[in-house]
Amino acid sequence: MDWIVLLLGGLFAGTLGGLLGIGGGVVLMPILRFFVGLDPARAAGTCVLAVFFTTLGGSYRHFKLGHLDVRFTAPVILSGACATIVFSLLFVPLAQNGRWLDLAIGFVFALISLRMIVEGLTSSRESDGETQTGQRRNNAIWPRTAIGATAGMLPGLLGIGTGVILVPAFTYFLGLPIKAAVASSLTSFCANAFISSSFKLAQGFIDLNVALPICAGTLVGSNLGAALNKRFPSNGVKLIFGLLFSYVAVQFVVSFYRA
Hints:
By secondary structure, this protein is mainly α. It has one domain. 79% of the residues lie in helices and 0% in strands. It contains 11 helices and no strands. α3 runs parallel beside α10, α6 packs antiparallel against α8 and α8 runs antiparallel to α9. It is globular. The chain starts with a helix and ends with a helix.
């Protein structure tokens, strides 16, 4: 029964991640932390391994759909990978005090929920060739490098995704249409998640018995979510989960004060 629940949780997280470009870690982290009962460090390590499979399936699907420009995204991937390595090394001392890890994750969840609520309440006006701002694509290399380096901090240090940073950054600062932004976000985080999960596996922060059924579910769900992204209106989904993640953020903060 536990395997079935974990498999279904991974399927749900992967579908949402592929649909919204958020990686799925924001769904998996509270499941691992509060339902499965893993300590903060092992929840973070197990989560980022599962999210790697979410982003792998989702980014491949978006690539096949023609949403991904690999050359444009390359500086984001490279700078993000370097940042992930640095902050993966810093994860070990943070993991020794799990309550602070809970507090940091709660803060990120608050930002994610705020972004989703705002976007959920805003009418989507994008077309396949436009962004919300109507701006042209920014081809300068330095903003892509800076965005990647900033986004690489979260998977390395907290084990959660960077969709909250990358999707709006690709859309508003780099001028990509929304579907290309989702594809680029998933692909960039795929590299970050691979590096982070490799470090956390070596550091002993991944529970493989929990991770395997979740990974199986996320791999299937991410492909389903990426396919739904082509025609599914996501604003309502963002509003619902923005409110849900507000509750999750509170739970992480409460866990910090209870520890």
